[in-house]
Amino acid sequence: MKKTISIDQHITEFPKETQQLLELLRMTIHSSAPKAEEVISYNMPAFKINGILVWFAGYKNHIGFYPYPTAIVAFKDQLKKYKTSKGAIQFPLDKPLPLALITKIVKFRIKQDAEKAAAKKAKKK
Questions:
Q1: CATH number of residue 14's parent domain
Q2: How many helices (H) and strands (E) does the chain have?
Q3: Is 70 exceeded by the pLDDT of residue 47?
Q4: Which of 66, 90, 95, 110 could form a disulfide with 55 if both were Cys (CB 3.0 to 4.6 A apart)?
């Protein structure tokens, strides 16, 4: 597997149609989490505030979105039409991305991230 250096590099490795979906996902995450920093984690594009909020990656037939298992459990009813596993959601390339749902999941993760950071800070006192 090729080492991913940047989100731009990851996106350019795919056909134009997939690139457009990956950029749309990236912009949706950015607008949902404007304070998040783009990073590469586990060789995948990710967004981080205190800790990693979400990861995503392009594949041949889908886009993988990785928002932690807690988010998949919390949104399981809204994710029924997508293939999911413990920590991943697969968005097929031939269907529109569920941008409103992605926004809700990212905001859910921001809240979790803030709570975890606050608990960690309180524990240090």
A1: 3.90.1150.200
A2: 4, 6
A3: yes
A4: 66
